[in-house]
Amino acid sequence: MNFQTRYAAKILSVGGVISNPTDTVQGLTCLPYEKSMQKMLWLKHRSPAKGLILLASDLHFFYPYVEDTSLLAQIKLQKHPTTYLFNAHHNTSKLITGIFKTVAIRLTDNALISDLCQQCQSSLVSSSANISGYKTATSLLSLTLNFHQELDFILAPRHGNFQASHIINAHTQERVR
């Protein structure tokens, strides 16, 4: 793990919000701390009603957020990144679930996400790196212009990660997106 990744994990662990490439698009990332998630929503001008996604490299990081953890066994890494909707545990923050009774989770083998999860011993709260209603940032310049130096750290975008994940309801297997 390189210095930048260790530094990003340190920023996350003290409540920071960073931007980093994910297995899909450039994202905004924080740990599931209320103040961090509030900052992320403020940065994006995003309604808390929409909820946020949890990313992790290991299923055990999702246990605190899912009502029936035995259902997590059905998640398998897919060729195309896939986000699953599960019934949320009653203690899951409304900033994560929004107005829904579900939690959106995505298991990934992305090396950076895996390193951050392991360093922080947590799932990561994630959302695309954009102001609500606008295109996702794909360069350091667009991140700087969009977020005006308000991000606590930026791991530069990588070329080729510009496709959103599929979304599947884990209980019905219905593809939502």
TrEMBL record:
Q: Which Gene3D superfamilies match?
A: DHBP synthase
Q: Provide the catalytic activity annotation.
A: L-threonine + hydrogencarbonate + ATP = L-threonylcarbamoyladenylate + diphosphate + H2O
Q: What is its main location?
A: cytoplasm
Q: What is its EC number?
A: 2.7.7.87
Location in the cell:
Cytoplasm
Q: Where is the YrdC-like domain?
A: 2-177
Q: What's a GO cellular component annotated to this UniProt protein?
A: cytoplasm
Q: Cite the PROSITE patterns for this sequence.
A: YRDC
Per UniProt, the keywords (alphabetical) are: Cytoplasm, Transferase
Claim: ATP-binding is one of the keywords in the record: no
Q: Which GO terms describe its biological process?
A: regulation of translational fidelity
Similarity field? Belongs to the SUA5 family.
Under which name does UniProt file this protein? L-threonylcarbamoyladenylate synthase
Taxonomy of the source species: Bacteria, Pseudomonadati, Pseudomonadota, Gammaproteobacteria, sulfur-oxidizing symbionts
